[in-house]
Each structure stands twice: as structure tokens, then as C-alpha cells.
Amino acid sequence: MTNPAWLAPVRAALDGAESVCPVFFRDDDAGWEDDALARLLDLFEQHRVPVDVAVIPDALHPALAKQLQARAEGGIVHLHQHGYRHQNHQAHGRKCEFGDARRAGQQATDIAAGWVRLTDALGPACEAVFTPPWNRCDQTTAHVLEQLGFRALSRDLTAARLHSGAVRQLPITVDWFGRSAGQRWDLTERGLRVAASLSGQRLTGVMLHHGVTDAEDLEAIAELIELVGAHPQAACTHLSELARCP
């Protein structure tokens, strides 16, 4: 196993953990950049580490659906819904597909249509988990998801917590492409962010975007999942399993 310096804080956090730390990896925007998606999923399958893939219903085509179904059968790749069209509906402010610019009925129509499209294409491989595009949605979305029978909602930890009833909220704690003062984090900062999440004894979720993942990113991601996948104090899992936890 390699021992890159940027992972030293992650290893130290796991070595010092008082209990096993649950970790999940979520990759967004399946339906775009298929070749890049394949390269990333190959990596997770090689290391036998689970990865949750958020699939854009309107972007899913038959060839990709077939490939994703085959990967899901292996138990490493897990599939769930990523909005509907990944389309911004806000006239002002930050981009959002499911925000206050849309009434409950409009949101419900799109989310339900997306679920039908995914389940028709992917069958039982599609899990009742929802990731909103740009990690943004509002309280109306949470109510709609509960009414439609979704089990989990995954956004960013910085998003205001919603009243979600039976829908469990499973936040991302580290954005692989995070920025500070407009500058993308380097590997040292990413390692510190992952370590801080682990040290907080909370669920650690790492968000990836295959469409902007280059060769250097793939190498570093491989180093990270090799470490957490083998460490006895880390439990790599997936969103639908976490949704079943008490």
C-alpha cells in the first residue's frame, strides 16, 4: 500500500477512532461523460469499495442503463435518483432544480416522472434515495419525497436541515472539488477535511463528480479508498444501507 503524506491525517484519525467510522462515497451526474464515469467506477470495483451513483433520469440512455445494471449486480455500485433533468428553475440566486420557484405539485410531478424513468430502465437496481442537483432543495421537496416513499435524501452538510419525517438525511461532509477563497483545495487540504470529518465521529460522506475528474484525481481517489477500504476503523457503506440504520 502506498503511504502518501496527504493521507497521514486520515490515517491518524482512523487509528485514534474510538468506534468504527461509517464512510460513503457519492458520485453525481451519471448520464453525462460516460467514459469518465466508467473509469471512476472501475476504480471502486477494483478496490471493492462501495460507491453511490446519482443518476440523472432525463440523461439516462439505454446503453448506459445496461452498463449500470451490470455493475449494480456486482454489489459495489449502487444507483439512485439525481433530480430529473438537472435543470435550473431559479430566476435569481443560486442554481436549484427543486427550490422555492416551484410549487409542490411541480416538484412532485418531476420527481415521480424521474423515478418511473429510472425504475423502468434500471429495475430494482434503482434505490429510493434522492440527491438534488447542486445539493439544493427546499422543505417542500422533503415533504414530496416522503409522500413518494423515498427513504433517504443526500445533500451537503452545510445545507439547512429540513423536516423530513421518515426520509433520512445523509449529508456529504467533504466535497472532493471543494474550494476556499475561490481556489480548489489541494490534496493536503482534502486530507485534512476528511480527517476532520472522521475525527468528529460522524458519518463521513465524500462527494465526487466524474465529469471533472482527471488522472491525478483518480490516483488520489484510489489512494483514499485503498486506505479507508482496508482500515479496521472505517466501514465503507452505501446510502440505502445507512437509510436502514436506526
Describe it.
Helix 1 (8-15) packs parallel to helix 6 (187-199) and helix 4 (104-122) crosses helix 5 (139-148). Strands 1, 2, 3, 4, 5, 6, 7, 10 and 11 form a nine-stranded parallel β-sheet that branches. The chain has a two-stranded antiparallel sheet with strand order 8-9. It is built from eight helices and eleven strands. Strand 8 (179-180) and strand 9 form a beta hairpin. The longest helix is centred in the middle third of the chain and has 19 residues, at 104-122. It is α/β, with parallel strands linked by helices and 246 residues long. The chain is globular.
By DSSP (H or I, 4+ residues per run), the number of helices equals: 8
Strand proportion, as a percent range, falls in 15-25%
Run of helices and strands = HEHEHEHEHEEEEEHEHEH
Global Rg: 17 Å
CA distance, first residue to last residue: 35 Å
Q: Unreliable runs, pLDDT <50, ≥5 residues?
A: none
Quaternary structure type: single chain
